[in-house]
């Protein structure tokens, strides 16, 4: 995923509960429900499902009092039904699909994340084959996503979270790094094979580790550094033998890695209680504003002179517009699905999911575009992906042990 989870999402803001009547006067207070673990720490969230009042109030009320404060539907379900026997057996409220099959729902999220990511990469590369203007296409990606967010806010799905100047100052560096990483990724996609760009981007964990060690001052265990050696070696072998290699694609992918690394650093400083959907929407809006000027300066004259006319002449106006719309929609949806998916799982599952996603994209791009790769390129790519998998596994285990140590 090009976009990582950038915020601490929250579950339920407040749950109102009445207190016992005292001296004939009823009073009420609020019980805060804290997030079930930070997203960056692998906390599992209940995404899009309603917490049942009976579960929240289980520990706070005796049986006799609990029945009175349940929602009407729950209270009715727990009361004796008509025609029931004298034992008072009542009907149990049905369990929702999301609660009954959480593993199946999470698996579906993973499938949709991979599916949308593959479709985006394939359609994106096809557009560059007849319309090689990555700066403009990057703007379209973000523009379609921003329109989607504005429409979602307008209908209240989700409700727009308020923005203030302090939060804006925190999000601007994140959005700038997001914009730079996104644009340079697209420049690389336009210049070389999709599989090669993703192979180079496998180096992102190396840059993250280096930034954590030398910029944030966090000590990186030697085991993590050793696990990154196959990544560097594999990418080097693949780069030396890649048939589509050129310096524009290679350098752009490397800049993208560095940009996303700094995005991660700034994201840690911008942790907020705002939900991830709203955070990503605000970041997309700021990133769009950042991307428009370079697109106009670097590609504007060419687009006006012959870029649009050449692209339309090759595929027709209808397909040209529909391709740009759908590539932007797939870009936004796969990033949003990635956010929603990774919020549901632990760090280890997160790590495995990211590695498998890259394998899927590389494999499908080779099949769809028929890219010819040498034996050395294939070996280098496999070694790099194996190194990323090893690094991700070790890092996730270390984070899990650290979190359990703090809990103890």
TrEMBL record:
Protein name: Sugar phosphate transporter domain-containing protein
InterPro entries xref list: EmrE-like (IPR037185), Sugar_P_trans_dom (IPR004853), Tpt_PEP_transl (IPR004696), TPT_transporter (IPR050186)
Localization terms from the record: Plastid, Chloroplast membrane
NCBIfam families, per database record: tpt (TIGR00817)
GO cellular component, one term: chloroplast membrane
Membrane topology note: Multi-pass membrane protein
Organism expressing this protein natively: Populus trichocarpa (Western balsam poplar)
Coiled-coil annotated spans: none
One GO molecular-function entry: antiporter activity
Listed PANTHER family: SOLUTE CARRIER FAMILY 35
Transmembrane segments: 101-123, 135-155, 167-183, 222-241, 247-266, 278-297, 317-334, 355-371, 377-394
Domain Sugar phosphate transporter residues, every copy: 105-392
Alphabetically ordered keywords of this record: Chloroplast, Membrane, Plastid, Transit peptide, Transmembrane, Transmembrane helix, Transport
Any one GO BP annotation for this protein: transmembrane transport
Cited SUPFAM superfamilies: Multidrug resistance efflux transporter EmrE
